[in-house]
Amino acid sequence: MDATDQTIVITGASRGLGAGLAETLHAQGARLALCSRSAPVLEDGERVLAAEFDVRDASAVARFAKDAVSRFGRIDLWINNAGVLAPIAPLRDLDLEEARTHVEINLLGLLACCQVFVRHVRGREGGGALINISSGAARKPYSGWSVYCAAKAAVDRLTECIDLEERDHGLRAFSVAPGVIDTDMQALIRSTDEADFPDLPRFVAMKRDGRYNTPAFIAERLLDLAFGESGRPGDVLVSLPNEWEAR
Ligand SMILES: NC(=O)c1ccc[n+]([C@@H]2O[C@H](COP(=O)([O-])OP(=O)(O)OC[C@H]3O[C@@H](n4cnc5c(N)ncnc54)[C@H](OP(=O)(O)O)[C@@H]3O)[C@@H](O)[C@H]2O)c1
How far apart are CA 122 and CA 10, in angstroms? Predict the structure, then answer.
């Protein structure tokens, strides 16, 4: 699918899925506004706005959206991808400060981004698409990932609420479990002690067998949800198929 003439925001674009989405969508002609704490994968340029900030900083999020609109005129699709997995441990051993930081990034930072985009769409002509990157862990419990599972489940429900509030005003909202992707987050999982994360062997086997979804595969499906035929009104929670099973 062609992304020419679409302006797309991607948070968490310095590495992993966000960086891969940025490279794929840039090659397909999109105008991009990218952010992360360290430098995004693509440099500032004619079709790229690159910003460095923490999504926990709501005023930085608002400035970034304003800059994107000044540069490109409007935002058509906003992808909330920035996220962390740590802390990984049973609840009885969790450091509460680490849990608080996690929720501030994965839930409250994302929520601030959603608010800025919802307000943008309300303030201009035409519709828009919001995609929140969720996880299979939102919909299935994993021992050792209580904070991650809880925050991603909250992202699912938050997105359903946004859909109810905004769908009559042209905003289509999706919470997408992207499948497993070979990123730093997966490396962190494989470096975990099995005592803290009993599912470890399954993730080690995925690496051995190359059972991953690539960012290019995910990008195609996100574009189709946002601008194509596959996104149906009210179908907010989406799970992408496994790429290797489709080969
Ligand atoms: N990998 C998987 O198998 C998998 C599976 C299901 C869902 N997901 C979800 O997919 C998304 C991307 O994961 P990934 O595997 O690509 O992770 P990753 O390789 O660790 O990359 C995470 C990205 O988020 C950014 N980020 C983290 N905290 C941030 C903050 N406070 N403010 C701004 N940016 C921040 C990071 O950049 P900086 O560090 O430079 O800020 C980085 O660009 C996450 O939401 C994750 O939960 C991943």
Answer: 20
Is the pLDDT reported for residue 41 higher than 90? yes
CA of 16 to the centre of ligand 1 (A): 7
CATH, residue 112: 3.40.50.720
pLDDT the model gives residue 120: 98
Q: Ligand 1 center to residue 84 CA distance, Å?
A: 5
Residue 56 CB less than 6 A away from ligand 1: yes
The tens digit of pLDDT for each residue in 85-141 reads 999 999 999 999 999 999 999 999 999 999 999 999 999 999 999 999 999 999 999
pLDDT at 246: 77
- In short, whether 12's Cβ falls inside 6 Å of ligand 1 is yes
Domain that holds residue 29: 7-179+214-242
Q: E-assigned strands of 23-170? A: 31-36, 48-52, 77-80, 128-133
pLDDT of residue 247: 64
Task: Point out the ligand 1 atom lying closest to the alpha carbon of residue 104.
Answer: 31
User: pLDDT at position 6, please?
Assistant: 97
Which pLDDT score, from 0 to 100, does residue 229 have?
Answer: 81
- Name the residue of 9, 10, 11, 17 to mutate for ligand 1: max ligand atoms within 8 A of Cβ: 17
What average pLDDT does the segment 218-235 reach?
A: 89
Distance 168 CA to ligand 1 centre (A): 31
Please tell me the predicted confidence (pLDDT) of residue 186: 95
User: Which residue shows structure tokens 């929670």?
Assistant: 237
d(CA 193, CA 153): 24
Distance CA 110, CA 227 (A): 22
- Number of structural domains the chain divides into: 1
Instruction: Let me know if residue 200 belongs to a domain.
Output: no
Residue to mutate (ligand 1; options 34, 36, 80, 148; most atoms within 8 A of CB):
36
Q: Closest by alpha carbon to 110, among 151, 66, 49? A: 151
What is the model's pLDDT at position 230? 81
Task: Evaluate: CB of 184 within 6 angstroms of ligand 1.
Answer: yes
